[in-house]
Amino acid sequence: MTQNGTRKNQIEEAIEVAAEAHQGQYRKGTRTPYITHPYAVGLILMEAGCTEPVIIAGILHDTVEDTDLTLEFIRERFGNYIADIVEGCSENKALRWRARKTERIEALRTASPEVCTVTCADKLHNLRTIISEYDVIGDTVWDRFHGGVEDQAWYYRSILSAIADRDAALQKSVLRAKLSKHDGGANTHSDGKDTAPQQGSPDSNDARKTSTAIDAVNPQLFRQFQQAVAYLFDGGS
């Protein structure tokens, strides 16, 4: 709440929560305050036309993983939808680097479009930062990161591949469903007309789940992420 008793914009709340949680943290190998990263992720999501909850999740995406803030706090303050996205973007820091990165990559293959979209924005900003610093200090930029350029190339390419595989699998699933329906599904009258599932029926619930599951990752962000990976690790190819 503000001093005059009105409720703050939730994006402003998220910025304040993230700024306080990340206070005293800096970007890897620099004296740049860490909050610049989640703030930039939020801006990238906003510019891509994402919804307010996704933007908020982008601003908060590192709070549970890298600060003392809990998922329960996020859930209570911002709701289940945003908390679920933040949870989907968080790594298990109890695992060693390769193991937790592999776990995260595999999770992306079945993650929600919101989690994948925030991940694209997160990694896109990381890559843009590396590119700008590489132009100044060259290969020494990789000294800041686990395993140097080889491990980082594996990591970013694998994320890109996992998200691409996810969308491809979902598109195949949609196509199969359409073909099955065209060939004569359960919801067809004898006159050949389709009938919508009754509200509240199991078919209706499945339809809602399917309509959510087939949503693709934000295409603008995916393309930009793809281009950044190619520029940095594949010589711009």
Write the layout of secondary structure elements.
Layout: H1 10-21, H2 36-47, H3 52-60, H4 63-66, H5 71-78, H6 80-88, H7 97-108, H8 113-137, H9 148-182, H10 202-213, H11 219-233
Helix pairs in contact: 1-3, 2-3, 2-8, 3-6, 3-8, 5-6, 7-9, 8-11, 9-11
Offer a few descriptive terms:
single chain; mainly alpha; Hypothetical protein af1432; 2 domains; 11 helices; 65% helix; 0% strand
Number of helices: 11
Task: Tell me, rounded to a whole number, the average pLDDT.
Answer: 86
Quick one: biggest sheet?
A: none
Stretches with pLDDT under 50, minimum 5 residues: 186-214
- Total number of distinct structural domains: 2
Shape: globular
Termini separation (Å)?
49 Å
Q: What fraction strand?
A: under 5%
Radius of gyration: 21 Å
Percentage of residues in helical conformation: 55-70%
- The H/E string reads HHHHHHHHHHH
Short description:
The protein has two domains: 1-90, Orthogonal Bundle (Hypothetical protein af1432), CATH 1.10.3210.10; 95-181 and 200-237. Helix content is 65%, strand content 0%.
